Fold:
Amino acid sequence: MLDFLNRHLMHPLAARRARSRHLDYLRVLERTQYDPPEVVRARQLVALKVQLRHAYDTVPYYRAAWRAAGAHPDDVRSLADLEAFPVLTKADIRRHERDLIAAGYDPAKLRLKRTSGSTGVPLNIRIDEPAARWKLACTVRSDEWSGWRLGQRVAKVWGNPEYRQFGLRGRLRNHLLDRAVYLDTLDLTPGRIAAFVAAIRRHRPGLVFGHAHSLYLLACAMKKAGVDDVRPNGIISTAMILHDWQRVVIEQVFGCPVTNRYGCEEVSLIASECEAHHGLHLNADSVYAEVPADGKLLVTDLSNRAMPLIRYRIGDVVVSAGGRLCRCGRGLPLIERVEGREADYVVTPAGRLISGISLTENFALHIPGTAQVQVVQETVHHLRIRMVADAGFDAAARRKVAELVRETFGPGVRWDLELVDAIPQEASGKYRFCISHVARDHLRALSA
Ligand SMILES: [Zn+2]
Structure:
């Protein structure tokens, strides 16, 4: 009953108050997802041409870069013609942040997304409001493929719960509208996990959401405690590699299939599994994706006009589905899988567990002058922090490292800072955010 009211009353009211059309967008997207592949492609070509024209006319960076490369929006007649345009790297974005903002947009009035992206490189991306609403609608559409319905309560296993950043208003909104229950992955103890399990048994969330390694850890703890009565409608694993051995345990404990989702802060949702769980459907309504021969995914944002990302090399390696169609009947193209991000949990001397992906994100975003970061836990009392630094890295930044280590791990943890030129990806294309040589035993103790 409460779910029904929340979906049909609270969400529409909140959308109207915020003058957001995302629920209207959602209705359109629910219909068009079943259009045939050629219709989807034709729509993408139109959207792509509009975005290229806009970028050429209003974004100084692209006008200069494309002129130098001899590429022009008028020459684009098919999706493949995009290949004539230069690739946009993370380094380009860091260097030309201002020149990537379209004329007529005031950066102060845009949504700022700060992210350490898929390879630990911090970026500032600005998104206009209509694009943010459109992306939200796209995300809700694919999240509902998991079995969850908008309006049902969500349980999030996540670092830095969003609502805390917005004070009382955020808490109130969370209480009435989002109704999310959180397990903070920056501070996991057996006690906190037990309290969270008690909360989700009480609140019966429609969706359990989190990073693969955190969902797995939660499932192991529940299995060990003999909890088998939490039955969500959907489970969404996002932002990192979901291994089959993790999927098996999570699905067994919750009695519900896991939906693997792939996205990033820069462009939001990129791809998601549907009910068929056989490959991931690209979010063709908001991004155009290219999988070159080396597998290094290029995304073009079709909706954000304020800071268009065109042929952006995101840093993840993707395996193409070779044009295979999904048996669900949706015309949205498929990719087979993402060889994306991988991170270990680390453990503090006090026995707290910390999600590696949340940890490195925290470091990358809070230490000034960080161009890329990786944390290696050698022993419980010794960390090696590998960092690519830029001009903004100074003595104050070094003090910030000390402060973060002390806050996160407690006193008495020694750390070495290694300034390096690059943090290479592994041969498979995986990027390891965080490596721990000691957490394995603690994790085993939780799950055995
Ligand atoms: Zn499908």
